[in-house]
Amino acid sequence: MGQLYLVRHGQASFGADNYDQLSELGCRQSRRLGEYWRERGMQFDAVITGTLNRHRQTWEGIAEGLGLSRDDVLPWPGLNEYDAEAVIATIHPEKLQRPDTPELYRHHFRLLRQGLGAWMQGRATPVGMPSYIDFLAGVTTALDHVRDKHHGARVLVVSSGGPISTAVGHVLGTSPETTIELNLRIRNTAVTEFAFTPKRHMLVTYNTLPHLDGPAYEGWVTYA
Length: 224
Prior knowledge:
alpha/beta
């Protein structure tokens, strides 16, 4: 039986002009995950990442922590995140104020939750984005690839909260509402594990942060 580890990227630059860059803390989170795995002798037979900057930067941090110099990574565009601004715009066309207070953060995520529900149910078409059916296919074809090509292996996927929660929802058969809640709770550099056979994936753990356990990492747990 194979093992598939899905890692959400480290903290990115939420609220900045370019979200698709890891923050300094995001880089430290990523290196720490690699260090944690190196301390336990973890090795991967294959690595697959989305093609966003924050995916690549997270993998680079993990690889540094693992002490690896290898660069044989398979880029998989289907593991890229949805465009949150485009999703929100389907129900709130006016540009949102940059979230810099607790209330503005809550307002942002309330709108995101509503927009995701409309997109997933086929009631909204965010500009520049695929349909949810096509987004789901980008994730499930990655899962199919892992089962087809890496039977019995240990595989690492670095992606975002949307694709990872979509993978979990697909495997468990959850409702769109539950998948959205999974998405909005996933933490930066959190690890989700599947066991897999050539026929199916099985969820083992979701949204865990073993590498940040302990007082030395107080304040390192982030969500955006």
